[in-house]
Write a structure and sequence with these properties.
heterodimer; A: globular; B: mainly beta; Immunoglobulin-like; 56% strand
Amino acid sequence: AQKVTQAQTEISVVEKEDVTLDCVYETRDTTYYLFWYKQPPSGELVFLIRRNSFDEQNEISGRYSWNFQKSTSSFNFTITASQVVDSAVYFCALGLKTSYDKVIFGPGTSLSVIP
Amino acid sequence: DVKVTQSSRYLVKRTGEKVFLECVQDMDHENMFWYRQDPGLGLRLIYFSYDVKMKEKGDIPEGYSVSREKKERFSLILESASTNQTSMYLCASSFYARTFAIKFGPGTRLTVL
């Protein structure tokens, strides 16, 4: 089965708190890609990060960081010192190279950052 | 600024109507996609196209058809709209040779009454 699970449906934090969004994926493919997208209230999906299955290095970009652990099939996303502008729905996704770029999305986590 | 545009942000239609959702990209992308987004389900692929006049079914094609007569334009057609097709529809495009560099449009929120 190929699936992405985001167990947290909604999260609320107070501004400046750190928050971690969980993502667990399932696939039997050895080559795959993992993504995070942000969907602000305007609706347009914004690409945040792409990792391939052979690169388990964690990544930091400003206040954002990602922890990829193949052993637990997880690709978690942490926002440090959250801001109101971080309020959005965040999607984790799994990319598989088939006849096309197949992307399987998780159900999304709605993050509200309260001032 | 390169972009994917969708003809409407909001659309209200009646049950049984034929509905056209239009998507245009200005990046000369070979691949184009139509997704449907519903709360708790994420995005699900309806159809995709890898070339002009070529199309493939995604995970939930029932009740939908598509048309791609020109490279830059990909249309989603609801032959006879039903209330269970009320949803957010997202168009996307990508280059064939670039892995997963997918650009999304702003979405069309369709309500079928």
